[in-house]
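ok here's mRNA 3'-end-processing protein, seq below lol
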Amino acid sequence: MSAILRPKRSNFTFKFLPFLKSEYDLTTDPERPICQFYDGRNINSCPNGLNCENKHVSSMFSNKVVCKHWLRGLCKKNDNCEFLHEYNLRKMPECLFFTKNGFCTQGNECLYRHINPQLKIPECQDFNLGFCRYGPQCPRRHVKREICPLYLFGFCPAGRECDNVHPKFNVSIDRLRIKSDTVRRVEDSNQNSSLEVEEQGMDIDR
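and the structure came out like this:
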């Protein structure tokens, strides 16, 4: 019975396998281990590169999305699968039908995630700071939020977790209206010296 449920894959051979192995150095063994040196954030992290016999799994998908083949009972990798083998609605894969057509025939009963295409567009950092010179023609997403009144008064206890916007104004130090005591003293002395020079000039003219 076990031979029927879990047959040995080594007994199945295809004519194109030698070509893939010789030309591209590829192996189709799903049970090969995951490379311990490969890091999805750095392509050159594995010393063997593309010639590595182990699997190179991207970190952005590793154990973060439910395996779509496992949901249908068709995953052959078992414990070696880089995707999740558990029923988690928060980590379900994206619904391809909804992504392609903008709607899903199953509606709210669909088990896959319906992601708004607008949410995939990255936010415009210039707009978040207060102004975007491209306006409506900007290819990035402009998210309108309310400015935090507590932040405008000087302090917001929520910090980065605040739901409102904390605008960052690029103001140079020279343009600040509040000046230090040393700057005031220097300016006062310069004004006094200029007044003395003008008075001396007026005395000479007389």
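fwiw Helices lie at 2-5, 17-23, 68-71, 96-101, 125-129, 149-153, 181-205. kinda neat tbh
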